[in-house]
Amino acid sequence: MSLKDLHHYFSKKNSYSQHGEDMILMSYFNHDYKGFFVDVGAHHPFRFSNTYSFYRRGWRGINIDAKPGVKKLFDRVRPNDINLELGIAGEEGSLTFYMFDEPALNSFSKELSEERNENTRYKIIDTKDVMVRRLSKVLEEHIPTGQNIDFLTVDVEGLDIEVLESNDWERFRPSMVVVEDLDLDLQNLHNSAVYESLFSKGYVLVGKTLASLIFKSNR
After folding, report:
1. Residue limits of the Methyltransferase FkbM domain (predicted)?
2. What element of type H or E holds 4?
3. 56 in a domain, yes or no?
4. 3-state class (DSSP) for residue 170
5. How many domains does the chain have?
6. What range does the domain containing 59 cover?
7. 105-143 pLDDT, tens digit each
8. Dihedral in degrees, nearest 10, Cα atoms 29, 30, 31, 34
9. Which member of 17, 96, 100, 104 lies 3.0 to 4.6 Å from 21 by CB, making a disulfide possible if both were Cys?
10. Cα–Cα distance between 55 and 36 in angstroms, integer?
11. CATH value at residue 173
12. Alpha-carbon distance 57 to 62, whole Å?
């Protein structure tokens, strides 16, 4: 299916997220409000996107993904956003990026990528050393002066906690945060590193989908 055909298919949908995360987020914002988002592990301009439905409503933001060539695609489909081709991690430098035949599974996690390669139908097709930066440094350089972040969404296949811990939460504090957490046990929330990290920063859990947790700042 061509990009044009794929866009035509998705343009008929209200939700572009994989599991409806965008619709849950939308319920927390006034319909006419036009805010600002940050999408780490953005993957694609509209496929499995937590932010495209907001973009169509006039929101703007920063899309970050490490896949080689992804910036060109984002610049074409979402020219009014800030689109960055790099990875986010706990330390600045470079990491090996594992690329799958299903790009939504691309990851910097060697352990998770090898497990998926061995035990699922999805396979690693390439690897590449990619520049990674701390989220706080990227936001420092690209957030417009005086701009609040209405929500942050993080989906980086295995290193989500590193992304969270690389932010400066005093300077860059989103009102809402969406994070992938595939291993969450709702009966034992405090066993989740993602939950503990955001709970300690003053966020409360307000929603969950099949793969994501949704938090709201209580400040």
Report:
1. 39-183
2. helix 3-10
3. yes
4. coil
5. 1
6. 14-86+146-217
7. 999 999 999 999 999 999 999 999 999 999 999 999 999
8. -80
9. 17
10. 9
11. 3.40.50.150
12. 15
